[in-house]
Amino acid sequence: MDEKKRTSRIIARLKRAYPDAKCSLNHTNPFELLIATILSAQCTDGRVNLVTADLFRKYRRCEDYVNAAPSELEQDIRSTGFYRNKAKAIQGACQMILERYAGRVPETMDELLALPGVARKTANVVLGNAYGIASGVVVDTHVSRLAQRLQLTEHEQPEKIERDLMKLVPQRDWINFPHLLIAHGRTVCKARTPLCADCVIEQYCPSSMK
Question: How far apart are CA 9 and CA 162, in angstroms?
Fold first, then answer.
C-alpha cells in the first residue's frame, strides 16, 4: 500500500472515531484565537482556557493589550508560563495589528508570520480555525509524536514534519487532520503508554506494539 493511500485510510478511521474533533482553545473571533494560541506555547489548552476566561473579559481589543502595563498583563497570564515573553509578544503583535491592519488580524501566512510571537503553528491555527484557510498543517507535540509513530515523517523539526504531512494529506483535510491526531494522542496514542489494543488505526501503524 502506498503512503498516500495508507494516510487516507488513517484519516477515514480517525474521522469515524472522532467526529467532533475541533480546536480546543476557546475563542469567539480570530483575535481571541491569536492571543490564546500565543499563550498555548509550552502550556496545556485547558490551562489557557482557564486564563482566557477572565482575560478576554478584561482585554477585548488590541488597544486594551497595548495600553496595559506590562507588569499587569504578565500577572494576568502568569500561570501559562513564560509570561514575560508572552506578554511582550502579545503587546508587540497587537501594536503591529493596529498600525498595519487597523486592528484586524491579517489573513495571510506572510502577514501573520511578521507578527511578534507568531510562528507557523500559530499562523496555521488562526488561518485554519478562524478563517477556514488551509495554508498548512498545524504541528504541535501530539501531531509530531503521532506523525513519527505512524512513520508519516522521519523528521523531528516541526517545519519538516509539516512539509511531509502536506505531501501526504489532501489539502481539504489540512485543517482537520491535526485535530484528529490531537484527539487520538490525548485518548489513545499517549506519549508514555500508548493504548495500542484500543487503537482504530493500529493496523496502519508500523510502531504498533502488537
Answer: 19
Report how far residue 35's alpha carbon sits from residue 53's, in angstroms, rounded to the nearest whole number. 12
Cβ contact 14:200 at 8 Å: yes
In this structure, the number of other CB atoms found within 10 A of the CB of residue 196 comes to 16
Q: Is 85 exposed, middle or buried (0-12, 13-18, 19+ CB in 10 A)?
A: middle
- Annotation says 140 is catalytic: yes
pLDDT of amino acid 16: 98
Catalytic residue among 86, 140, 160, 164: 140
Is 64 part of the annotated catalytic residue set?
no
**Active-site position among 76, 86, 121, 173:** 121
Ranges of beta strands (E only) in the chain are none
Report which DSSP code applies to 202: G
pLDDT digits (tens, 9 = 90+) for 151-172: 999 999 999 999 999 999 999 9
Q: With 60 as the cut, is the pLDDT of residue 210 above it?
A: no
**Which structural domains are found in the chain, ordered by start?**
3-22+137-204 (1.10.1670.10), 30-131 (1.10.340.30)
Sign of CA dihedral 95, 96, 100, 101: negative
**Cell digits for 44?**
496545556
